[in-house]
Amino acid sequence: MTDQELDLSPYAVRTDLAVEAREMAGPPDTPIPGVWQEASKNGGITVTRMHIQSQEGARAIGKMPGHYVTLEVPELRRGDTDLQDRVATTFAKEFEAFLSRIGVGPKASIFVVGLGNWNVTPDALGPLVVENIMVTRQYFELMPDQVGPGYRSVSAVAPGVLGTTGIESSDIVQGIVETAKPDLVIAVDALAARSLERVNTTIQIADTGIHPGSGIGNKRKGLTKDILGVPCIAIGVPTVLYASTIVNNTMDMVFEHMKQHTPNTDPLFGVFGSMKENERLQLVKEVLEPLGHDLLVTPKEIDKFIEDIANVIASGLNAALHEAVDTDNVAAYTH
Amino acid sequence: MTDQELDLSPYAVRTDLAVEAREMAGPPDTPIPGVWQEASKNGGITVTRMHIQSQEGARAIGKMPGHYVTLEVPELRRGDTDLQDRVATTFAKEFEAFLSRIGVGPKASIFVVGLGNWNVTPDALGPLVVENIMVTRQYFELMPDQVGPGYRSVSAVAPGVLGTTGIESSDIVQGIVETAKPDLVIAVDALAARSLERVNTTIQIADTGIHPGSGIGNKRKGLTKDILGVPCIAIGVPTVLYASTIVNNTMDMVFEHMKQHTPNTDPLFGVFGSMKENERLQLVKEVLEPLGHDLLVTPKEIDKFIEDIANVIASGLNAALHEAVDTDNVAAYTH
Amino acid sequence: MTDQELDLSPYAVRTDLAVEAREMAGPPDTPIPGVWQEASKNGGITVTRMHIQSQEGARAIGKMPGHYVTLEVPELRRGDTDLQDRVATTFAKEFEAFLSRIGVGPKASIFVVGLGNWNVTPDALGPLVVENIMVTRQYFELMPDQVGPGYRSVSAVAPGVLGTTGIESSDIVQGIVETAKPDLVIAVDALAARSLERVNTTIQIADTGIHPGSGIGNKRKGLTKDILGVPCIAIGVPTVLYASTIVNNTMDMVFEHMKQHTPNTDPLFGVFGSMKENERLQLVKEVLEPLGHDLLVTPKEIDKFIEDIANVIASGLNAALHEAVDTDNVAAYTH
Amino acid sequence: MTDQELDLSPYAVRTDLAVEAREMAGPPDTPIPGVWQEASKNGGITVTRMHIQSQEGARAIGKMPGHYVTLEVPELRRGDTDLQDRVATTFAKEFEAFLSRIGVGPKASIFVVGLGNWNVTPDALGPLVVENIMVTRQYFELMPDQVGPGYRSVSAVAPGVLGTTGIESSDIVQGIVETAKPDLVIAVDALAARSLERVNTTIQIADTGIHPGSGIGNKRKGLTKDILGVPCIAIGVPTVLYASTIVNNTMDMVFEHMKQHTPNTDPLFGVFGSMKENERLQLVKEVLEPLGHDLLVTPKEIDKFIEDIANVIASGLNAALHEAVDTDNVAAYTH
């Protein structure tokens, strides 16, 4: 199915995360036809597996049909290395299961694409992951007989961004795919969050590829099976959010907080309080944008956060892609 | 006067910037006894010179007595190199005038201290400035007769932060001052802003030194004449702000915006709208803090912003401190 | 002509620089048939223009037929910014002339490839140049009518190295060329020098592309018109050299030095002194290699040298490729 | 004993490493009065413990009286992480033993000084070690009752170099020692090697402090007990060497190699071959220096080598200084 067949444009702006889209579509205990979901929680890590099975389900929650897995780790920003190791291990196991669920075999060759910009820290997730991927394709090309068991062909490139290369990263990836001929593309990208709590605490895996308008940069072309000729799994982490998002997000929390103390809330907030969330966000944007104040912001400690989560993803991928790499000690393969 | 003689603790939390403190103390056209002020605007750069002349003035606006100069350049984040050069030149001229106003002669030896943390981009302002300072003290020590005219003795150190050194930066600076014996200390530090528009657009010069609680880090001891034995000029730039500040700041703007469209505002915002600014900020903090969501945030493009403004300050200082460095082409001395 | 038609393999190991190959082929004042050459010297910069016009000439000096321009600037390592600016201006003028000499028009679209490895400083020349190239292709693609006069379509990518991507950089470039369709490729690469004096002081421009075995890395496939379908200009700078090269190079100088003091040299050096240069180099390699001591080394100050020479090349290219960029002040466009 | 009491100036130029000085002083099996030595080899790591017990011993080998421990790991440049972990563990055990041998108790507070220049990779060893030291002094100062058992007070600063601060690093350290009052200083520094094989493969620990003229930079003042008032342990790693050293070093190997094949060597090398090593080195320097070619060079892969060896030292120190940090898994505490 192409983007054209299912017009998601009105939804596309809402969120890059399937779990958020699901929340916005209705209460969690009311099933949505065409949307299968299960969640498990263990040691501070919540894993949600979702399958949007039909166009009906896709329309209901505003996300492309496909498989989605989300890891939510609220404490991930604390810098706890034990937790980071457990997240990497969980990521590895989920990713392995994800590959087999969508039919990617243990011999399939893989090309990891790190989208984003080296020089903009919160957008450097993709390049940082690529830097720590254990690449093996060269051995399969040059001396296939000597590659030990338990490895597959893996390659990895950070194609840069339009503003620094002059070429859409989608075009660069497409060109490389044509010459390197992988069976699958994995694209790692930084996303804009819809709430402060998600920034650098959530990782999403999806088999829908990268679509125009997602991620931090302005991508005019996506990375999808239609464009690349091979399937594309997207790994995304929210690393920035709009000032207006913080405001709107916080106002919800303030109203909720005040409601708990005063049942009759209407006079408390007046017209502003009774606005729908979308209207209020629109108003906030109307005020901030003309002044150039609706900035994308990121936590002060972003350098450390990005490094940590890039290591989690890279070591998780190394363990998931190569059987010979042990999922119980994945961190040893990155630095 | 020491910190003890004038208790500014209730004010200290409000703002590190004298121009903001002045705004909060009353309308700009109503004079405040003991506070002299003048402002000029030229080519997108507003320069405000303030002199808090008495304890009465200090109490009125909640800042230490002393001289303050502020450069406000709303467009500084645009990456316009011409504007950056003009800001550097303006900074150099203002700094030169500032030195002579407070009685620092052309031969006084100077020690530039870059406070903050290399590894936390929005806190790296001080270390980045130090990296581009033209140091000359070694020539004055080793071959004083051969130093050309138009230079003075300048040294520069980035002492690191408590969390990475185990020693208060104030103690490190004090130790170096005792052995290097400069006539004046200039301390460069990143600050927390009270509004999004100030982030990386405002530079403050003050002869009051650095006081506990100012800047981004948690400084328990300051850098003042009392502690160091020599005067200390502080140069500060807001580079981060709290999520709660963004919310409160934006709510002001939203209310202002709505008032302009509907004269009768009370029912519009209810109790929330009629709260005093401080109360509302308190409420927002009460909601965000328990969740760990009152993060310090910084613009996504902070890497570039910090580099640009550090270059402005370093090249401005080089021109102001060394007569032989031309104020009209200050940028050539940094990279 | 392809590589296959002219077997240069016995020569290929000798040197990547045409001026060195020419020196090794015979005294400078004895013309070599099929090799045209002229040199000019100005302000510490020697420019040598060479045209290897025939296979006879190519065989005589062991380099592919084609145009070569070399800038030799012995003082370039001194960190003199005035000299750097003059080298950038000279480079820009020579490159512009080179383009017109080989028939590349002012509208030809250009793709700059930065070969090498970000994380290995002396091999980071290509990526550093790419970072400072003024890319414009995106404007020609998205809003061709609005591009001002004096610019051409320029794009730039650093494809990484085989060891970190798993894909030959030649394959990556080929894929990008197929989708981005430039008229010309410019490949920037770090080279191994044959003498200490050349390290970071020499820049070569050649229209022969990149051939297997050149540069620092082990390139199995080249970047040539045969492979890419469009012409490829190579820009190379020697940034490393073998320990054995230093030894052999220095022994020459020592023998020369001693000869000047004692006419009868044979008993001075014995068998070792009377060896041919190649034999002696072979002996030195035989001794060092088994111990793993024939390291590639680079000057201690390589971080600064690489940054400086990358800026020279990037600002020179920006001025040469875009008429609107002034060759007299090229440095302003890089940082 | 001060530097003045024992004039080592004629020896000082020879080598910073005690094991090299010992080699130069005579055959290993001939005891030198006043010099005690033992060596052990295990898993590719040779540990040499030396005690220069008297002025007689000091004069004989040209090094200050004191304790020296050297780790030689010829394979350390191979990037083998297992070996790196074993070196870190060995370093930790040797350093712990060293501390108790020279009478430093488990409660002694320690100040780690990282000498050298961040921006010059082969000189960045000290700053990189400091970045990974587990500092605890702040807890002992602010909440001494809450510090867990098995930790001591550790602080760490990288003071920069004279060329970028304008202040001798010795003066900066002295000033900090006066305010921070540690019981012991540990100074980490990069050294110039006397042979290619030592570069980034050898670590020396010595209780003699840092003396003028040692290390890479030009240090006019040292870091000794005389100057600091507290003892100073120096940790040094050779990371660069002179081009002339490579030549001389290799010529030895070449002559040795040729002798093994031809018993009658005199006619093989002539006068040059029969020169004493010092004379030959002098001749090589005479030839290279006027041309500016006696560069300090470093291996091409220096970025990785320095990072690896800095991690070895930092994790080794963390384990040696804090009992609570396990010597068997020291690497987990650095990144």
Automatic annotation (TrEMBL), chains A, B, C, D:
GO molecular function, a single term: metalloendopeptidase activity
Pfam families, per database record: Peptidase_A25
Assigned keywords, A-Z: Hydrolase, Protease, Zymogen
Post-translational note: Autoproteolytically processed. The inactive tetrameric zymogen termed p46 autoprocesses to a smaller form termed p41, which is active only during spore germination.
Maturation-removed propeptide residues: 1-16
Reactions catalysed, as given in the entry: Endopeptidase action with P4 Glu or Asp, P1 preferably Glu > Asp, P1' hydrophobic and P2' Ala
EC number of the protein: 3.4.24.78
A biological process from GO: spore germination
Subunit structure: Homotetramer.
Protein purpose: Initiates the rapid degradation of small, acid-soluble proteins during spore germination.
Family, per entry: Belongs to the peptidase A25 family.
HAMAP family in the record: Germination_prot
UniProt protein name: Germination protease
Organism: Cohnella xylanilytica
Lineage: Bacteria, Bacillati, Bacillota, Bacilli, Bacillales
Gene: gpr
